[in-house]
Hints:
Elements: H1 4-36, H2 41-72
Helix pairs in contact: 1-2
Amino acid sequence: MDIAPLSAALAIGLGAIGPGLAIGILAAQAMNAIGRNPESAPLVQTNMILAIVFAEAIAIYALVVALLIKFVH
Length: 73
């Protein structure tokens, strides 16, 4: 019984949950901040995009691990 496909699926599946939640929370809080102080929108938007990029990098790492498990094992 080969467990590599299940391991790869779990790696990308569980590895995408955290960044997905983080991006949702980041966007919600950024919209809340812009709604409270519209003048700060450019600064909030810049910081939000930077944080989203860092969160998305975690999902890319999970994808790399899943591909390594799938093709190297």
